[in-house]
Amino acid sequence: MANAVRALLAGGVIAHPTESVWGLACDPHNPDAVARLLRLKNRPLEKGLILVSGDVNHFSGLLHNLSGDQRARIDATWPGPVTWLVPHFDQVPAWVSGVHHSVALRHTNHGFTAALSRAFGGPIVSTSANPTGCQPARYKYQVLRYFGDELDFVGGGNTGGRSAPSEIRDASSGRIVRAG
């Protein structure tokens, strides 16, 4: 864990297990780290990224503008493998939100990933560990096959065993954007 946190704090890009697939992570406030992650994935900046944390309080500034009903919908699924799109009101960098007025947030219940964000001291960017157009890595050997030695840390145990990536829902409407 300490090596993963050191890598994040130093602006590195790491691979870690999540609830269903391996993810690539970095410090969301470091534009160079995010640019490197996007380059590794061959992912356009415009799409935006997911912020993941093991502590819902890391998202308090983004959640306080939600209605009681919206917050109840979110609270009913967290912690867990549901990612919510919430309005960001320019509280997150454009390199995280892309061209969107919302940001994707997940309060994870994966042991390593939750502990990683808590040790890091805030949410981390976490996106599937695969180049765009390829299947997400479900095992460490797949991460290594995709990225070789281009990552600063690869580890954290196994995925949570879910067969589908996290579900994505819109907090404003409750609509399912991507089934999980």
Automatic annotation (TrEMBL):
Q: Which EC number(s) does UniProt give?
A: 2.7.7.87
| Superkingdom of the organism of origin | Bacteria
Q: Which UniProt keywords apply?
A: ATP-binding, Cytoplasm, Nucleotide-binding, Nucleotidyltransferase, Transferase, tRNA processing
What Pfam families does the annotation carry?
Answer: Sua5_yciO_yrdC
Where located?
Answer: Cytoplasm
The UniProt record lists the YrdC-like domain at 1-180
Q: Where is this region: Disordered?
A: 158-180
Catalytic activity annotated for this protein?
Answer: L-threonine + hydrogencarbonate + ATP = L-threonylcarbamoyladenylate + diphosphate + H2O
Q: Describe its function.
A: Required for the formation of a threonylcarbamoyl group on adenosine at position 37 (t(6)A37) in tRNAs that read codons beginning with adenine. Catalyzes the conversion of L-threonine, HCO(3)(-)/CO(2) and ATP to give threonylcarbamoyl-AMP (TC-AMP) as the acyladenylate intermediate, with the release of diphosphate.
Spell out the family assignment given in the record's similarity comment: Belongs to the SUA5 family. TsaC subfamily.
PANTHER family, per the entry: SUA5, THREONYLCARBAMOYL-AMP SYNTHASE
According to UniProt, the name of this protein is: Threonylcarbamoyl-AMP synthase
Instruction: Write down the species.
Output: Microbulbifer harenosus
